[in-house]
Design brief:
Layout (H helix, E strand, L loop, with lengths): L1 E2 L9 H21 L4 E6 L12 E5 L10 E4 L5 E11 L2 E7 L10 E3 L3 E10 L2 E4 L12
Antiparallel strand pairs: 1-2, 2-3, 3-8, 4-5, 4-8, 5-6, 6-7, 8-9
């Protein structure tokens, strides 16, 4: 799933998206560090059936390593929400392996832990908020 861009109406997304994205990430990190929750709209099909296009995810801070099986927001290009398959440390760097629920056998690769914005705790779909549970690692195929 990809977080929807937040380009103000009437602005050119080609010229303002990159700067706006950097400003929003700083704002999101600040809000999360204060113990607040942020809501982000999504599109894409990589997390079906857990998350659907048009859903709004609710993200909280994720201090330290995210738990295996949790859904996290990764500040990649583009920003995406996927499930944690594994975490570890190599050469002093925190690493996180993620995958979309639609294709759990296809890992996204290894992401820097510093790119994890937060953990997805809930989803709002058609006006109804529900928890997004962690899935036990045993349900994932071996990588």
């Amino acid at each position: 799933m990809t977080a929807a861009p937040s380009t103000p109406p009437g602005t050119d997304p080609e010229s303002s998206c990159h700067v706006a994205g950097e400003i929003l990430v700083d704002l999101w990190r600040d809000l999360l560090s204060r113990g607040l929750e942020i809501a982000l709209p999504l599109w894409g099909h990589s997390m079906v059936p857990t998350l659907l296009p048009g859903d709004t995810i609710h993200v909280v801070a994720c201090p330290g390593r995210p738990p295996v099986g949790a859904v996290v927001v990764v500040l990649g290009q583009p920003i995406f929400a996927h499930r944690v398959l594994a975490t570890g440390r190599r050469k002093g760097r925190e690493l996180v392996v993620t995958s979309g629920d639609r294709f759990p056998h296809r890992a996204d690769g290894v992401n820097e832990g510093s790119l994890i914005l937060g953990r997805v705790v809930a989803v709002t779909r058609e006006g109804t908020r529900s928890d997004v549970p962690a899935v036990t690692p045993a349900l994932f195929p071996l990588l």
